[in-house]
Each structure stands twice: as structure tokens, then as C-alpha cells.
Amino acid sequence: MTATATPTPGVRKPVAWRRIALHLGCLAALLVMLYPLAWLLATSLKPANEVIASLDLLPSHLEWSNYRTALDGVNDVSVWRLLTNSLLIAGGAVLGNVLSCSLAAYAFARLRFRFRGPLFAFMIATIMLPHHAVLIPQYIIFNQLGMVNTYWPLILPKFLATEAFFVFLIVQFMRGLPRELEEAARIDGCGPFRSFFLVILPLTRPALITTAIFTFIWTWNDFFTQLIYLFSPDKFTLTLALRSFVDASSTSAFGPMFAMSVIALLPIVLFFLAFQRFLVEGMANSGIKG
Amino acid sequence: MTTTQVPTPARTAQTPPVKRPKRQREGAAWVFLSPWVLGACLLTLLPMAVSLYLSFTDYDLFNSPNWVGLRNYTQMFTEDPRYWRSVGATLTYVVIAVPLQLGLALVVALALKNMKRGRAFYRSAFYAPSLLGASMSVALVWRALFNEGGTVDNLFGTGGWIFKPGWALVTVALLTVWQFGAPMVIFLAGLQQIPGELYEAAEVDGASGWRQFLSITVPMLSPVIFFNLVLQTIQAFQVFTPAFAVSGGKGGPADSTLFYTLYLYDRGFVASHMGYASAMAWVLLIVIGAVTAVLFRTSRSWVFYASDTEGGVR
Q1: Could you list the residue range(s) of the whole structural domain that residue B43 is in?
Q2: Half-sphere exposure of residue A15, counting CA atoms within 13 Å on the CB side?
Q3: In terms of domains, do B34 and B95 share one?
Q4: Same structural domain for residues B197 and B284?
Q5: Of B6, B33, B49, which residue sits at a domain end?
Q6: Cβ–Cβ below 8 Å for B186 and A288
Q7: What is the average pLDDT score of chain A?
Q8: Is B71 a member of any domain?
Q9: Is residue B56 assigned to a domain?
Q10: Closest Cα to residue A255, out of A58, A70, A82?
């Protein structure tokens, strides 16, 4: 992106200067904002003696062995295993949320049933419900079911549309679709199920993609739920493995720790670069239509 | 599963909209709703009731719960200094982080509003930290940057903020401020919905930029400001990962980053006082509910909905 704005003949000069100043300000802010990420990347490649001692951002030479150490993983569990675990949980959560939230959203957006108003209000209220209010009993329930230290407590709730934010997001999107579509489908003999799967769902794709991406990133970043439900190292996710470094903050482990941090952050960065339009639009719409 | 129904020709001829029997359509709705209903009952309502009950017991996960009446609550309010320190840390954090974050978000949104070239780029770039900031990776970076000998210490000679009570909290708050992108994107979308004629008319009347901001931008944007305020406040009350990472899970130094959720985790899952932690969870629920209610109540005096005055213009 160019920071200079070419002044057009009709525009007065002060405006052009203001525009340049604005761009310079934005770029400066951006530098400060992105510094921690640059620091992370640079530190992950620094030799152990430079991590703290050297004030330079850039390493004197690239210490790839940090990554080799990181790939060995933590507690004898390789990074590949941790990565697979993280992907498994995030993938299950995405599938669950897209499926269950779109089903519920269709009912709220399009179908008539008793108590629709109060139930919708209740659904909205649960968006604001602090997760911690239900955490302990949920833990006890999953404990009784023998599911602690498995991935079920992390994935199963997503198949039951517990993340109301996404139900709301999809409802808002479906309300924008013309009703004539379903009326046409109904005249052609489609029941509610076929018109949902064949007519509505394909058109809801943008909202479903937004749901999928946000679910992936939020699940990937989640720490609290994983912390309480998973305790054997071979079931750990990247986030939990990184946590093992928190206490052992000896500087010699800094390089590998941040190498692993980079690996843990990479999927989110890739998702962001690939889907930034969906993410930014999805976030923008969440506030406007509500 | 599909219930196909062929409309009978005799009926379509007379009644234009083909209505299915009401009962059958209602049944279909409940099929669509069933996962949500199951989740709402089993994973929201039931746990809420159970945690309310447990908050009056001494449940410890291993022995069956004994009824102790209000003891958890009285202990919490009168005999537990750590509880009050966690309340203090959380409130201080909310009061510092939320206004700073929203203020910065609004300033940046205003700066980007009239930008013709580069707006989409800046918008995405400023938004990125909102996605990355909740991760453990970034929390660890934060801990290192504000550590003794970290970048911030080297640049400003601050020493290790994470070891200083007071400043450790600011470190966590700054991580939240760093994620101003999400509310900024929402502000920007709100700003773009304000009709340009309003500013043109103000320009003709000779209103200054600041005057336009106060008389047009703020009232027209107030529903969005309100939305962001409620959302970010609720989220701030529940912050966990950065406090855990910065303090090594202990809430130190001197309990200065012992956020409410961190202490709740400590009581419930480290010390196994599930009854006590349940009582804490219910107090949190009530406080968040009360804060939201207060925000909604005050909103009547400062949030302006165009549809109220213009007969439903959306």
C-alpha cells in the first residue's frame, strides 16, 4: 500500500498534506502495533545468548536449532502430536458450530413455533452469560460421564449450539434472504427440511464461513477450557504445551519457547491472511445489525 | 426425514398462499431447534441450577456435598482478603482497559473513515491483533517484553513491570488495548452508515469539525458505542489467559493480577473448593447482570436511535 496520496488538481494543498500526515500517523501506529509480532519472529530465531543480552531486534545469525528443539515438543510429546490434537479439537468445534447453529438459526429466522419470542430473547441473553457461571457444573457433569481428559467436553457442546453468538449471526444473515425463495420451493413441493438444505443453506454460505473461521480461531486460542479438562501430556494442545514454559522462564529456553509460539500462531495468521475479508466484514456486521 | 407434501390442486386454485397444517410445521421447527434446546437445557440451565445449589454446599469433587447454608458467601465477603483483592484487580483492570481500548478504537476509526486509499489495508492490519491477542503465544511475548531487560525496560528504563504490583496490571491492560481492532471495525462500519447529508448540511451552517463530531457523529454512533461498551465490559470481566501467562498462573505480584476468573480457577480446580467457586461464579453472574442492566438503563439518556424519531427508518 502506498502511503502517499497524489494531489488532484481540484483539491486544495492543505488537504493533501493532511492526508499524508494521516497516512504517516497510521503507519507509525502500525509499526508499534506489529512490533510484538516482529519481536516474536526475531526472537524465535535468536541464539540463546542474544535473547536478553542483545538490544537488536534482528538476530546476528539465524538459529534454526530453536525450531528443531521446539519440534521435539514438551514432555516427550512431539509438536506434530500437539498440532494434531489442536487441529482435531478445532476441526470438531467448527463442524459442530456450523451444523448446530445454522439449524437453530433457520428455526428462529424463518419458522413459526410457540414461544418463539421468549426463546429468542433467552438465546440472545445467553450470549452475555459468563462462561464461568456454568463451568463447574459442566465439569462435574462431564466428570460423571467419565469424559474428563478426553476431547468430548471441548467438542460436544459445539454440536448443541451453545455458542449463541453464531446462532445470532446466522439468524441476522438469513433474515436478509428473500422469502420468495422458500415460497417458490414450497410450491415446488419442498418441505422445510429440503428448502433448508437445498435453498437456504447454500445462500447462507458467507455467514457459515464467518462462523467456521471465528470458531476455529477462538477454539485454537482457547486456554481455560483445555486447562481444566485435559491433563495427560499426550492429549495436550499447543496452547497447553506452551503453558509448561510459563513457569520455567529460564532464558536458555526462550528461543525454543518462542519458536513453538510461532508454530502455534501460524495457523491463525494463515487463516487471517486467507479470509481477512470474511473476518472483518463478519465483525463489522455483528455490531450494526444488532 | 423429509416430509414432502404435494399441494392439492383444488386448494391452490382458491387460496393463493399454500399453507401447510400448522402442527406439522411447528414440529419441523422443533426438529431444527432440538440441538439448541438440548444444549440450552443440559449445558446452560441445568448447570446454572446445579451451581446455585452447590454454592450453598462444601462440595469438593470427591465427597458428596453437604449443605452449609450461606457460609461460602459470608466467608467470601467477610473472611477472605484474597477474594477482595481479586475483585479490586478485576475492577481496576476493567476501568483502565475498556475506556482506553474503546477510545483508541474510536480515534482510529475516525481517522480511517474518510480515507480513500489504503483504508481496507489499515482496517485489516489493525484488526489482526484482535485475533492473535487471545493466544498463549502473544501472552508469552507480552510477558517477555515487559520483563526485566525486555524491550520496554530497555527503551524506557521501567524495570520489570511484571514484577511490580500496580504495573503488572497495566501490562495486562495494555495487551487488551492492543486488541482495539475488533471494536474499531465495528465503529468504522457504524460511521459509514451515517448519512453524508448531515455533514454537508452542517458544513453549510458553518459548524466546525469538533462541533460536527459532537452533534452528529456521537449521537448517530451512540448505538454502536453502546454495543461495544457492553460487549467489551462483559469480556473484560472474564479475562483469563493474559493474567495467567503474565503472572505464571499465580496472580502475582502480591495478588495484583489475581483476576476474578483466575481466583475462581484457583479455588475450584486447584484447591477443589467447588462449592466456594460456585458461589464466586454466581456473584460474577449477578455482577455482570447488574452492570449490564445499569448500562442499559443509562443508555436511555444517551443512546440515540434514529428509528425512534423518524418512524422506523433503518
Answers
A1: 23-49
A2: 10
A3: no
A4: yes
A5: B49
A6: yes
A7: 85
A8: no
A9: no
A10: A70
Q: What is the mean pLDDT of residues A16-31?
A: 88
| Separation between Cα atoms, residue B138 and residue A40, nearest integer Å | 8
Please check whether residues B108 and B39 belong to one and the same domain. no
Q: Is residue B73 part of a domain?
A: no
Which tens digits make up the pLDDT trace of B197-212?
Answer: 999 899 898 888 889 9
For A222, name the nearest residue in chain B, comparing CA atoms only: B135
Could you read off the pLDDT of A157-198 as tens digits, one per residue? 999 999 999 999 999 889 888 888 888 888 888 888 888 998
Query: Is residue B108 in some structural domain?
Result: yes
Residue pair A162/A123 in contact by the 8 Å Cβ criterion: no
Best mutation site among A283, A285, A289 for testing chain B: the one with the most B CBs within 10 Å? A283
pTM over 0.90: no
Confidence at B10, pLDDT banded by 50, 70, 90 = very low
Interface of B with A in 56-115 (CB under 8 A): 61, 108, 111-112, 115
Is the domain of B130 the same as that of B251? yes
* Chain position carrying cell 464467518: A210
**pLDDT tens, B162-173?**
888 888 899 999
Of A161, A145, A95, A196, residue with least CA distance to B34: A161
A167, A254, A287: residue with CB nearest B227 = A287
State the nearest Cα–Cα gap between A223 and chain B, in angstroms: 7
Q: What mean pLDDT do residues A55-80 have?
A: 81
State whether A286 and B228 contact (CB < 8 Å).
no
ipTM entry:
0.85
Same domain for B269 and B176, yes or no, is yes
For A100, A104, A121, A156, B23, the CA distances from B39, given in Å and listed in that order, are: 10, 11, 16, 9, 24
Q: Which tens digit of pLDDT belongs to each residue from B40-52? A: 999 999 999 999 9
How many domains are there within chain B?
Answer: 2
Would the pLDDT of B20 be above 70?
A: no
Q: How far is B79 from chain A (nearest CA, A)?
A: 23
What's the CATH code of the domain at B196? 1.10.3720.10
Question: What phi, psi does A222 have (nearest 5°)?
Answer: -55, 140
The answer to whether residues B42 and B90 belong to one domain is: no
Residues B161/B247, Cβ–Cβ less than 8 Å? no
Rounded to the nearest 10 degrees, what angle do helices B22-39 and A79-110 cross at? Answer: 150
Q: B200 with B137, same domain? A: yes
Average pLDDT over residues A100-115: 93
Q: How far is B4 from chain A, CA to nearest CA, in Å?
A: 5
Instruction: Provide the grid cell at A238.
Output: 499447543
B205 and B165 both lie in a single domain: yes
